[in-house]
Design a protein that fits this description.
- With 765 residues, this protein is an alpha+beta fold.
- The chain contains 21 helices and 22 strands.
- It folds into four domains: 137 residues, no CATH class; 174 residues, no CATH class; 210 residues, Aminopeptidase, CATH 3.40.630; 193 residues, Immunoglobulin-like, CATH 2.60.40.
- Helix content is 47%, strand content 21%.
- The strands form four sheets. The protein has an eight-stranded mixed beta sheet with strand order 13-12-16-10-9-18-21-20, with no helix packed on it. A seven-stranded mixed beta sheet has the order 14-15-11-8-17-22-19, with helices on one face. Strands 5-4-3-6-7 form a five-stranded mixed beta sheet.
- Helix 1 runs parallel beside helix 5, helix 9 runs antiparallel to helix 11 and helix 11 runs antiparallel to helix 12.
- The longest helix has 51 residues.
């Protein structure tokens, strides 16, 4: 074989440098560290290209063929095919160094973008298997002097690898005590913070910051830098540096927040919240939330399948803790940001309070019989007005009141005339829509322009009595307490107060006196409020919708806004609502069961389902007041439950039956869904069964997702749901759903008090 000319050698070097530049932009991360990765990608491509300029032609075929096989496609597949064409063509000519370099120029950048597959490192092993023949052949045919130079370079690289590994090991040994102490103090501090022990948390987190900071200084020292040049070792070094650095930052800002923002001191005393103290929470909580978000991002960046067991386990544990507290920190920061405004710190606020009862159901939860106006000014809450809803209906100008928005509400519910029958304004299952309508109507009825709507039903009122203590109501031998209020307000009052006027006075006193005590008394701090009111908020018994977008966003994040679940193209959904249309309190006897059975094709997203709705009316035909089992002169037999049934779904209605007879349903759209409606009459002690056949297509593919909107009712609905994939598919994972033994079906049976989300993942069998 002839010796290469100077021009050829220069050409090979130029091509090698060009291959290095073309490989820099690949996604290969041998160390997981920015500049070292760039350097190693460049160096790898240069070395392989130089070796190809010396190696035998057979190795060019291996190199180019491997690049074509391993590449996922696109422009780099074309590059690999060019390399293969040059390698094949070279077999017909005398061997030339520059041809091997040209093959490598097109093959190596394509190899650097090889598709990942199989176990961790499988694609890397295949790449090395492809380039190794080139490297070995290039070494063997090299001159003695060139081999010596290669050996010297290899020795330097070996020393860098050995030195970097030893230096990282030394850094870990020196920082181990600080790591242990910092981790222990951080865990203790976070536990204290969650339990509301601010001063203790501040001290423990400060200790954690000191220890983790010391460990970080050691692991990030200049003399540890060689470790970041060594593949596999660099990932460990970077992960430990990030763990200690971000841990120090979280502990530091957490300590500051705990010392400056002791939320246990944030109380509602004598009807007043200290707005200045509330505002003092804003910056510390915002800093803490931001630090946690940064840490979550950093942890995600350094997460790598190449981490060794102890490092991977520690990173996973800390990442899980950060992911768990991140929503809490974000919620606390958002709450501190909007709370001063909600409480009148930026000007007087007026809120409409709707007192509802599920004894007479409406789409949101229940009929509104009483109302109040709550005023907030610089942290002081005052019950400025209250009364029966009839007083607002009878205000002057009743025939001139208009509702202009939202469009969904007007189209679906104008027929119920909320402008003259405000008690029916809660017909929509979406509180933001209801709040917008009340916001338009209340000023037309003589009220103030309002900044939000609060909805409280008997179960919510009962929860509030934990803070007020018992409420005595004139004419009632029994005080309302946190144990009996819901039962009295939902059931017993309609028997004990047969006279409508007496009953209205009872409801007015119960709601007004509760809020008067709330606005004048003391309420414990946020932790106690959350534990007591959380279940009532989650189940839709206490709701609050605000007019300002940032405040509404916070209330939605809190789960308190009463917003109906929004439609998503990749998610199946259904919700059942019923509206009492006999103006009685018979819904205490109503029991609803929904059997939802779906057949889903994960390959196409097609779904066919049947909803079987069973409505059981346990009301007697006699023995109870007309207010409970009568029909307000509508001529229905006593004990009859007449309701407007609405079924929300993204699917098309194919067929509908009521007790086995084909019956038509009114079809409308609302809140992004199709809604099918029909009036249903259920006799005393009777049962009616409704069957709806539905079909459609979802965008979810192999992941089936189902949300269910749950209407607050006196008796919780029973949901019996089953999802079958089409033939050839089985369930491999599920949330909330329970897979059958053969995984050919997922199902659930429950009586939820609030909206639910369930999902299942299918794969070909």
């Amino acid at each position: 074989m002839r010796r290469a000319t100077v021009m050829e050698r220069r050409f090979v070097w130029a091509v090698a440098l060009l291959a290095g530049v073309a490989s820099v932009g690949s996604s290969v991360h041998p160390t997981g560290v920015g500049f070292p990765d760039v350097l190693l990608r460049f160096g790898f491509a240069v070395v392989v290209t130089l070796a190809a300029g010396r190696s035998r032609r057979s190795t060019w075929l291996v190199l180019a063929g491997g690049a074509a096989v391993l590449n996922p496609g696109g422009i780099w597949m074309a590059s690999a095919l060019v390399a293969l064409a040059v390698a094949v063509a070279s077999t017909f000519f005398d061997r030339r160094k520059y041809l091997g370099a040209v093959v490598a120029l097109f093959a190596v950048p394509a190899l650097m973008r090889a598709d990942t597959f199989g176990f961790t490192g499988a694609s890397a092993l295949c790449v090395w298997a492809v380039v190794l023949p080139v490297l070995v052949s290039g070494y063997r045919v090299a001159s003695r002097r060139s081999r010596q130079q290669m050996q010297q370079v290899a020795m330097v690289l070996f020393l860098v690898v050995l030195g970097g590994s030893l230096l990282l090991g030394l850094a870990v040994m020196l920082s181990w005590g600080d790591l242990q102490a910092g981790s222990k103090s951080a865990e203790s501090g976070l536990a204290s913070l969650r339990s509301g022990q601010g001063p203790e948390a501040a001290v423990e987190l400060s200790d954690a910051a000191d220890s983790l900071g010391s460990a970080h200084d050691t692991l990030d020292a200049w003399w540890v830098a060689p470790a970041r040049l060594v593949p596999l070792v660099a990932q460990q070094a970077e992960a430990m540096k990030v763990l200690t650095g971000q841990g120090q930052e979280i502990a530091s800002v957490g300590s500051a927040a705990a010392s400056k923002a002791d939320y246990r001191k944030l109380r509602y005393d004598a009807g007043q919240v200290d707005i200045d103290r509330l505002r003092a929470l804003q910056d510390p909580l915002a800093d803490t939330s931001a630090a946690i978000d940064r840490a979550a991002g950093q942890f995600a960046e350094v997460s790598s399948p190449w981490l060794v067991g102890p490092v991977a386990a520690q990173l996973a544990r800390v990442s899980d803790e950060v992911d768990r507290i991140a929503p809490q920190a974000e919620l606390a920061a958002a709450g501190a940001s909007v709370a001063p405004g909600l409480l009148g710190g930026d000007g007087t606020r007026h809120y409409f309070v709707a007192f509802t009862t599920e004894a007479e159901s409406r789409g949101l939860n229940g009929f509104m019989g009483n109302w109040a106006e709550l005023t907030a000014e610089n942290g002081k809450l005052t019950l400025s007005r209250s009364g029966r809803v009839a007083e607002l209906n009878e205000a002057p100008g009743g025939d001139q009141r208009v509702v202009t928005a939202p469009d969904d509400y007007r189209v679906n519910y104008d027929r119920f005339k909320p402008g003259t029958h405000l008690q029916d304004v809660t017909v929509s299952p979406d509180l933001p829509s209801v709040a917008q309508v009340i916001g338009e109507l209340y000023p037309q009825m003589g009220g103030e322009a309002i900044d939000g709507v609060i909805v409280v039903d008997p179960y919510g009122l009962q929860a509030l009595l934990n803070f007020t203590g018992p409420i005595s109501v004139d004419g009632s031998p029994e005080s309302l307490t946190a144990d009996n209020a819901a039962d009295i307000l939902v059931r017993r009052q309609y028997v004990e107060f047969a006279n409508r006027g007496e009953r209205a006075d009872f409801l007015d006193q119960a709601s007004r006196k509760t809020f008067e005590k709330l606005t004048a008394g003391d309420i414990p701090g946020p932790e106690r409020i959350g534990s007591v009111l959380g279940p009532a908020v989650q189940d839709g018994h206490l709701m609050f919708s605000a007019a300002r977008p940032d405040e509404e966003a916070f209330l939605t994040q809190l789960g308190a806004s009463g917003a109906f679940p929004r439609a998503e193209p990749d998610r199946d959904f259904f919700a059942l609502t019923s509206q009492n249309s006999a103006n009685n309190k018979i819904d205490v006897f109503l029991h609803r069961t929904v059997r939802y059975e779906a057949t889903y094709d994960p390959g196409s997203g097609r779904i066919a389902s049947q909803a079987t709705i069973t409505l059981r009316n346990d009301a007697p035909a006699s023995g109870l007041p007309a207010a409970v089992i009568g029909s307000n002169d509508r001529g229905l037999p006593p004990g009859t439950n007449r309701l407007l049934l609405s079924f929300y779904t993204p699917l098309d209605l194919v067929d509908s039956q009521v007790d086995g007879t084909h019956e038509g349903f009114e079809s409308q759209t609302e809140l992004g869904y199709r809604v099918y409606r029909r009036y249903i009459g259920i006799p005393a002690g009777g049962t009616v069964t409704v069957n709806l056949d539905l079909s459609g297509t979802l965008d979810s593919g192999s992941d089936y997702q189902l949300s269910v909107g749950v209407q607050p009712m006196v008796n919780a609905d029973t949901l019996d749901i089953a999802v079958h994939p089409t033939d050839g598919w089985v369930a491999v994972d599920s949330s909330v759903f329970h897979p059958d033994v053969d995984r050919r079906r997922v199902s659930l049976l429950m009586q939820p008090g609030h909206d639910i989300d369930a999902s299942a993942r299918f794969r070909p069998r």
